[in-house]
């Protein structure tokens, strides 16, 4: 078959059109670069464009990001668990949904005004520029999504350094957010990262002159590093949240709430109940109520010892323990299988009657294991709780109807989050009032971060004018 000239030119035109489309596509960045220097440079250039955007335009992009998080929540939750080998798909989905629905946008950037005889002074929230954000393996995608909303709402762009153990899930979230921003008419590279995150690339970020602020969400080592960087830093560090139960508590509800909080995402959240401290008068009753839940299994001393050997490494010289990361975020049945107990279908939480000094209490395990400590009274329970929290100033819970006890614990333990008569996650807005975040900054004091945390205050004084009374 021979083609006529006009048919040929039509085909050529079609092919060229396709090719040009492909060219445009390959020029469009998905925000992921080969080197940290390139990722920072791209975010820096993007911030120059983004700084010209109105609040209304920022909100339009944020709305598109929220939709992208929701649309991709199940796929990304699945990817997180597959890649990191930690946590639960159903709960990671809920965290992404919560992020989309309850992470504040620009509405929290409230201007302050002072007026008087001398005129009008405004204090507004300005952007830092480019923020470097380091994110954990335990909650990879929701941290990227939540920080992106807050940081962009504040007018910044962001470069992520995700944990190498969950970088694929983190980068998938990032790509979906960039795609949504582009489709909503926003600039490229508001959110960037590197295709192979490493400790070296994190170090480049911490020392780069174009990074105005650094935010670390992770364990003590990375928080210390950002605080030593010489830049404005937010540190959201480790916790070991205790939950105290006194004799006035609704024991049925306390049992239910504590197990729900402890098992959420296999105990990965930094806010999750890590140990329960219960006054003697209701100790047995609480354990009985917990065991009425068929997902709860009580470990014997022998089984608990086997799990200690499995999940903790003991340095006998220093008498310190370190957590075996290969069991972090694993489900209860997997832990049981590894000590030779099979066919434990439906078990989600392992409880154990422990002394307060037991390593299950003292170490941040991030596994669905709940040690339950007996205290002779509320004062002793509070003393244990304060010891176990280690001054992290992170999270604590209490189940009680005694207002004096609740108030005393809240004041004494001095944590960033204190939850009364509910599972820990009520403290981040899941079943409780208030906004959500997955970057809870105890060490540096911003608390439950939102767009305001990622701004610098700027003052503008107009003398002898603009006052209207
Ligand atoms: P992690 O400290 O191992 O890693 C966190 C991030 O820091 C990762 O991106 C990692 O690559 C980086 N990092 C760690 N050490 C580093 C070093 N020496 N140099 C350069 N980069 C380094 O933490 P994880 O296991 O992924 O997460 C669990 C920890 O994070 C727990 O302690 C948990 O309590 C804490 N956490 C806190 C919050 C919060 O909001 N406060 C939220 C989530 C997790």
TrEMBL record:
<dbReference type="InterPro" id="IPR016162">
    <property type="entry name" value="Ald_DH_N"/>
</dbReference>
<feature type="domain" description="Aldehyde dehydrogenase">
    <location>
        <begin position="26"/>
        <end position="438"/>
    </location>
</feature>
<dbReference type="InterPro" id="IPR016163">
    <property type="entry name" value="Ald_DH_C"/>
</dbReference>
<dbReference type="InterPro" id="IPR012408">
    <property type="entry name" value="Acetald_propionald_DH-rel"/>
</dbReference>
<keyword id="KW-0520">NAD</keyword>
<dbReference type="Pfam" id="PF00171">
    <property type="entry name" value="Aldedh"/>
</dbReference>
<dbReference type="GO" id="GO:0008774">
    <property type="term" value="F:acetaldehyde dehydrogenase (acetylating) activity"/>
</dbReference>
<dbReference type="InterPro" id="IPR015590">
    <property type="entry name" value="Aldehyde_DH_dom"/>
</dbReference>
<protein>
    <submittedName>
        <fullName>Aldehyde dehydrogenase EutE</fullName>
    </submittedName>
</protein>
<dbReference type="InterPro" id="IPR016161">
    <property type="entry name" value="Ald_DH/histidinol_DH"/>
</dbReference>
<keyword id="KW-0560">Oxidoreductase</keyword>
């Amino acid at each position: 078959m021979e083609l006529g000239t006009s048919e040929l030119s039509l085909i050529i035109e079609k092919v060229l059109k396709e090719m040009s489309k492909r060219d445009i596509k390959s020029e469009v960045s998905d925000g992921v670069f080969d080197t940290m220097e390139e990722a920072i440079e791209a975010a820096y250039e993007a911030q120059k464009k983004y700084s010209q955007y109105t609040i209304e335009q920022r909100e339009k992009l944020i709305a598109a990001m929220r939709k992208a998080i929701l649309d991709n929540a199940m796929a990304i939750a699945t990817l997180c668990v597959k890649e990191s080998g930690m946590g639960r798909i159903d709960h990671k989905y809920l965290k992404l949904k919560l992020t989309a629905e309850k992470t504040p946008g620009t509405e929290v950037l409230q201007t302050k005004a002072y007026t008087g005889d001398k005129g009008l002074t405004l204090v507004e929230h300005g952007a830092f520029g480019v923020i470097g954000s380091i994110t954990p393996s335990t909650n990879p995608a929701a941290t990227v999504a939540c920080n992106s909303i807050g940081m962009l709402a504040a007018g910044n762009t962001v470069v992520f350094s995700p944990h190498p153990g969950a970088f694929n899930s983190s980068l998938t979230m990032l790509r979906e957010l960039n795609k949504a921003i582009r489709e909503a008419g926003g600039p490229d590279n508001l959110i960037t990262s590197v295709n192979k995150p490493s400790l070296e690339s994190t170090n480049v970020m911490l020392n780069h002159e174009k990074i105005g602020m650094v935010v670390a969400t992770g364990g003590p080592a990375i928080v210390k590093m950002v605080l030593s960087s010489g830049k404005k830093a937010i540190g959201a560090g480790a916790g070991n949240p205790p939950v105290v139960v006194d004799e006035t508590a609704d024991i049925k509800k306390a049992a239910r709430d504590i197990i729900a909080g402890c098992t959420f995402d296999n105990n990965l959240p930094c806010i999750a109940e890590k140990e329960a401290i219960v006054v003697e008068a209701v100790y047995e009753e609480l354990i009985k109520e917990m065991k009425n839940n068929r997902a709860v299994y009580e470990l014997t001393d022998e089984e608990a010892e086997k799990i200690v050997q499995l999940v903790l490494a003991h340095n006998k010289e220093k008498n310190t323990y370190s957590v075996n990361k290969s069991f972090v975020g694993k489900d209860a049945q997997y832990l049981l299988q590894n000590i030779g107990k099979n066919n434990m279908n439906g078990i989600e939480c392992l409880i154990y009657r422990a002394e307060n000094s037991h390593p299950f209490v003292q170490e941040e395990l991030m596994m669905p294991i709940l040690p339950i400590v007996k205290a002779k009274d509320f004062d002793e329970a509070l003393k244990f709780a304060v010891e176990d929290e280690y001054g992290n100033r992170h999270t604590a819970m209490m189940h009680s109807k005694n207002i004096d006890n609740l108030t005393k614990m809240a004041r004494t333990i001095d944590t960033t989050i204190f939850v009364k008569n509910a599972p820990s996650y009520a403290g981040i807005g899941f079943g409780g009032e208030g906004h959500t975040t997955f970057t809870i900054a105890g060490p540096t004091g911003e608390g439950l971060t939102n767009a305001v945390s990622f701004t610098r205050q700027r003052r503008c004084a107009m003398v002898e004018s603009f006052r209207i009374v």
